[in-house]
Amino acid sequence: MKGTVGELGEFGLIRELTSRLTTTPAVRIGPGDDAAVVAAPDGRVVASTDLLLEGRHFRRDWSTAYDVGRKGAAQNLADIAAMGAVPTALLLGLVLPADLPVTWPTELMDGLRDECRAAGAAVVGGDVVRGDTITVAITALGDLRGLEPVTRGGARPGDVVAVTGWLGWSAAGHAVLSRGFRSPRAFVEAHRRPEPPYDAGPAAAALGATAMTDVSDGLVADLGHIADASEVRIDLRSAAIDVPTQMSDIGKAVGIDPMTWVLGGGEDHAIAATFPPDVKLPARWRVIGEVLPCAVARASAQPQVTVDGVPWAQAGWDHFSGIEDAQ
Amino acid sequence: MKGTVGELGEFGLIRELTSRLTTTPAVRIGPGDDAAVVAAPDGRVVASTDLLLEGRHFRRDWSTAYDVGRKGAAQNLADIAAMGAVPTALLLGLVLPADLPVTWPTELMDGLRDECRAAGAAVVGGDVVRGDTITVAITALGDLRGLEPVTRGGARPGDVVAVTGWLGWSAAGHAVLSRGFRSPRAFVEAHRRPEPPYDAGPAAAALGATAMTDVSDGLVADLGHIADASEVRIDLRSAAIDVPTQMSDIGKAVGIDPMTWVLGGGEDHAIAATFPPDVKLPARWRVIGEVLPCAVARASAQPQVTVDGVPWAQAGWDHFSGIEDAQ
Q: Which amino acid positions bind Mg(2+) 4, per UniProt (chains A, B) (predicted)?
């Protein structure tokens, strides 16, 4: 594809984008009508929406359009999985500058399509408009297959806290890229293209998970959301949390404690859940802590999540506080 | 609410926005978790997404935040109705500058909530991020209640073309505002806050509509989409299409043929549908034309929609062509 988005025009661009899509049996009506129609056999639909902005959530010199597509889809599809649902569909809103090469949105679409396929879903609709800042608005849908949704609010004192997926890899990759390096590849790739363990969400629901979330803001921050919604405390055991040797090495090289990445780094979209203490968890789950009762009437100053009994400072990202740069 | 979005911070803003929402029995899990859960009793879910950008789709000096909320919700909920479905839920992605007064997003949310309520739906989730251009990304969901979705592709030669709702009012209001006037109020209000006939969509499906769309790009353009998808032609009878006296008066005042607005103006979100010729339509529907077969192998030059048998020039908006300004 040659030329710019403006030269191709809205309808030409939509044709080009939709021509790249694949479908699934759940898609009853795909792109091109007033709305899409997607199977929701459970009788309930799970839905989540997220925005990615250039310069804020991705940089074109760090990530290809394809990677932005995979990452954008992944973070939404992981939200669906974290409710215990199976992803089914994705809708896309795109703001594009008129002078952007057409290859950018087409490669983005390839990435969205491939990540959807990895999760068993399909892109079913969207909207494109012209604007100054590339913006990718994604809504993901999913089906509960008869299981009850697992919220953040069901953790009970005595439950174990377990996690599956990668922790801190994206943040370590971000640290590498921030310093102008392009390797180690494994961490840079993890930053560009997270691999959420989609199937772990419905599996956790079937195992009786009492609360669940994906790790998008950082492990401590996201477990804080569970502690908050469940009105409990959570204590993590640092000895149960692995720091890979290669991550330690990067930490030494850049002067950062790698536990900062493991406990505070988001965007790997690991799945963290609480389970009753007697549950037999498959090997993919690492038990990393336990759920404790809140002391008396909880003072707001009391930390909800501790590590080996003591507060851990880093509190995750506030997307308006301005502390983070493009990730 | 005093202060700016940046001062309030992400979590404070989300609390403020979600505190304004109302719910419905279809909302099983609302905002605040990884994803929302919404009833989809039909076993299929209808979904559509749209973007509104400041300066392109709305202007803060022409429309209040409340009106932008109502209009943004309306254009998405109308897409759901135009498939023959009942709107159930809406998800919201918001890009906001840090220096924006908090009252803007809170009033936007009031507008979204109220328009959802008018359609029987509720806001169930969203995302807010900081950015330079106010951007409102909306995804609407709906339920078919056992009826088959009505696409754009089912019109057959011999069918009648009927419409319900307002035509050209928003475009006339836009013309008034473009010239620096604030009245006549009825047209300015129609531009700021369309009133789609939501219930007409499922009603048309129940009446046996063969094809349907909402009028968002303009009557001729949107019927062109039906003609294209159905591989038919459509001829409209100008005598069947009313131009209100007051609209004619504005046309004379600004030197524009008001039929330009009625046939070419979008954003009123009227519902246009085709029906078998023997259908008994309730009084709200105006029969304005008929569906004709395509002549032989359709030449691409052949107009798909004619008025009294002759082509009508205005082809609706191409959102990348740059011909339209902020609406």
A: 34, 48, 79
Confidence of residue B94 (pLDDT cuts 50, 70, 90): very high
Q: Name the band, by pLDDT with cuts 50, 70 and 90, for residue A303.
A: confident
Q: What pLDDT score does B312 carry?
A: 81
pLDDT of residue B322 exceeding 90, the answer is no
List CB contacts (< 8 A) between A153 and chain B: 33
| Count of C-beta atoms within a 10 Å radius of residue B188 | 21
| pLDDT digit string, tens, across residues B15-40 | 999 999 999 999 999 999 999 999 99
Gyration radius (Cα) of chain B, Å: 20
Q: H/E element holding A178?
A: helix A169-178
In sequence order, what are the residues at sequence separation of 6 or more whose Cβ sits closer than 8 angstroms to the Cβ of residue B165?
Answer: B195, B196, B197, B200, B215, B268, B269, B270, B271
Domains of chain A: 5-143 (3.30.1330.10), 160-311 (3.90.650.10)
- Beta-strand ranges (E) seen in A67-196 are 86-96, 122-130, 135-143, 160-164
Does the structure show a pLDDT above 60 at A319? no
Contact map slice: A 106-125 vs B, CB within 8 A: 124-125
Which residues in chain B (234-273) have CB-CB distances under 8 A to chain A?
A: none
Q: Quote the CA–CA distance of B249 and B229 in Å, as a whole number.
A: 36
Mean of per-residue pLDDT scores for chain A? 92
